[in-house]
Amino acid sequence: MYRILSNKIKNNEAKIGIMGLGYVGLPLAVAFASEGFAVTGFEVDPAKVKAIKSKRSYIDDVDSKTVSALVTSKKLNSTTDFSHLKNMDVIIICVPTPLRKSKDPDVSYIVASAESISKIVREGQLIILESTTYPGTTKEIVQPLLEKGGLKCGKDLYLAFSPERVDPGNKTYNIRNTPKVVGGIDLTSADLAKDVYAKITMKVCVVSSTEAAEMVKLLENTFRAVNIGLVNEVALMCDRLKLDCWEIIEAAASKPFGYMPFYPGPGIGGHCIPLDPQYLSWKLKTLNFYSRFIELAGEINAKMPEYLVQKIVDSLNKKGKSINGAAILMLGMAYKKNISDIRESPALDILKLLIDKDAKIEYYDPFVPNVCVNIGSKQLKYSSIKDLKNIKKYDAVVITTNHTDVDYCQIVKNAKLIIDSRNATNGLKGNNIVRL
């Protein structure tokens, strides 16, 4: 069985199933299909399946022309019928792993995916989990579900974990030039997973186990979360010391060794950095270990929207204007530049806080035409304004996302008050500018 599957992979003849066609799954499906594999995307959302069948992409990083060509050549297909998983040689799970309100990992999507596979699993299949999760998930949850029908992982079928490394909107690094990490429940599983990913990426790093591979992803994003937390606290320190934190960071970054610049902001967003460290923290608590760095960084980062809103309130007060009824324009709603992704975006938290203070809010984001926020039992819908010609009518302009194709200095130079949380107006001077 191993030899048959190995040859199929090496000859690009393996049928590949991708479970979940979101920010991770669709780019992955396109990458394999572009290499000549027959790829089927399995998705519970009929709208996504319909979009693919209509040869249209709904992900910023995937071009519709590419999707169209792959669907036309029958290399890429999509379906809501999970019974077709039985025809796949390789199945890759790319489903969400959100946090519950209690900050416990919600692995229900992983469980549902593994249960779907268990109903059709056959000898010789390779199953790879890519969904970010805590160390032990692959062996403790996925493996028992796959084996409940009698087949054994490592003998009858193969199981591995490979953390996704998608960075939405990144024009430099993509699936092709970002190394992949894989860990198998045994050496055979790891070897097969390595061969699969070697088809679409320049380098594959094999680690000793699925737990090690799971931990790699959490280390990567915990590293970022903790350092962002540190630099956000430095921004708070500099505020107390009446220092420009951006000047301090720029000067420190001139050191060619022993320092890596991180930058403060209105908070952290996206599906990874705000959530992934909490998976690790939760797992460690089950082992009676308290991760102080993770918890402290989480507290600091979560407080940044409140800090920024207080900056807005104080700055308006100095101008003799109350936040109540103030006309405020937010520039940016996505959690990072040049994407439409608003998952966990701190801009949404800032919007809610300003609404609570009865400010009159509008926003501009060329990538995000509409947003909905829940205030109590009400759901409020906001739409991006069309242009920035009437900047003078706002009591304050708040920069929450620094899109690189927007000349913020030119846009806001005549604004009454500018609250810049992204250093987007670097070089612009005046007593109407307040930077984080």
Q: What does this molecule look like?
A:
By secondary structure, this protein is an alpha/beta fold. Helices cover 37% and strands 15% of the residues. The chain contains 13 helices and 15 strands. The chain has helices spanning 2-10, 25-34, 46-53, 64-72, 108-118, 137-147, 187-198, 210-241, 245-252, 276-285, 292-318, 346-356, 408-412, and strands spanning 15-19, 38-42, 76-79, 90-93, 126-129, 158-161, 180-184, 204-206, 327-331, 360-364, 370-375, 378-383, 396-399, 418-420, 433-435. The strands form three sheets. Strands 3-2-1-4-5-6-7-8 form an eight-stranded mixed beta sheet, sandwiched between helices. It has a five-stranded parallel beta sheet with strand order 10-9-13-14-15, with helices on one face. Strands 11-12 form a two-stranded antiparallel sheet. Helix 5 links the parallel strand 4 and strand 5. Helix 1 (2-10) packs parallel to helix 7 and helix 11 (292-318) crosses helix 12. The model has no long low-confidence stretch (mean pLDDT 95).
How do the strands and helices of this protein lay out in sequence?
Layout: H1 2-10, E1 15-19, H2 25-34, E2 38-42, H3 46-53, H4 64-72, E3 76-79, E4 90-93, H5 108-118, E5 126-129, H6 137-147, E6 158-161, E7 180-184, H7 187-198, E8 204-206, H8 210-241, H9 245-252, H10 276-285, H11 292-318, E9 327-331, H12 346-356, E10 360-364, E11 370-375, E12 378-383, E13 396-399, H13 408-412, E14 418-420, E15 433-435
Parallel strand pairs: 1-2, 1-4, 2-3, 4-5, 5-6, 7-8, 9-10, 9-13, 13-14, 14-15
Antiparallel strand pairs: 6-7, 11-12
